[in-house]
């Protein structure tokens, strides 16, 4: 696994064998940090021609309304343009982050991008690996 960003708020990596970009939220992100990490994961997907994204929100405490809107109206359409078609999300242990994640999912066109939620990273990764995008 190639780690491209690693700081106290987030880790961004690329798993070459399964062609998956991984965005792991490690702690609270202010709006600027959230946008930077989201945009960076989009850029990695474009550079690597990845069609799959794993978003691990296990430790994310909340997703603000602004971050939800930014994700659903800007980041996900840009991920689609970059080639990402499926997104696996590891559920947060924090209720308000779970609600935010579901709100984002409800605003995304399911015919263009599939978003599935999982209880742990292993399940999410196994699901992504099982999808043939060739």
Compact overview of the structure:
By secondary structure, the protein is an alpha/beta fold. It has 4 helices and 6 strands, in the order E-E-E-H-E-H-E-H-E-H. It is globular and about 35 Å long.
Q: Please tally the β strands and state the result.
A: 6
Q: Over all CA atoms, what is the radius of gyration?
A: 13 Å
Discrete helix count: 4
The separation of the N and C termini measures 21 Å
Helix content: 40-55%
Please tell me about this protein's structure.
Helices cover 43% and strands 24% of the residues. It has 4 helices and 6 strands, in the order E-E-E-H-E-H-E-H-E-H. The chain has helices spanning 31-48, 65-82, 95-106, 121-130; strands spanning 2-6, 10-15, 20-25, 52-56, 86-90, 114-118. A 6-stranded mixed beta sheet has the order 1-2-3-4-5-6, with helices on both faces. Helix 1 (31-48) runs parallel beside helix 2. The two termini are 21 Å apart. The model has no long low-confidence stretch (mean pLDDT 94).
């Amino acid at each position: 696994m190639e780690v491209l960003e690693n700081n106290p708020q987030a880790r961004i990596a690329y798993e070459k064998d399964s062609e998956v970009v991984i965005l792991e939220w490690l702690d609270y992100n202010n709006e600027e940090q959230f946008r930077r990490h989201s945009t960076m994961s989009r850029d990695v997907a474009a550079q690597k021609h990845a069609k799959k994204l794993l978003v691990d929100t296990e430790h994310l405490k909340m997703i603000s309304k602004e971050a939800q809107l930014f994700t659903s109206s800007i980041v996900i359409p840009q991920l689609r343009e970059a080639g990402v078609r499926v997104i696996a999300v590891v559920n947060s242990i924090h209720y308000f982050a779970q609600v935010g994640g579901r709100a984002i999912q409800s605003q995304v066109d399911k015919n263009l991008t599939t978003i599935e939620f999982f209880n742990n990273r292993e399940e999410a990764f196994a699901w992504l690996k099982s999808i043939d995008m060739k």
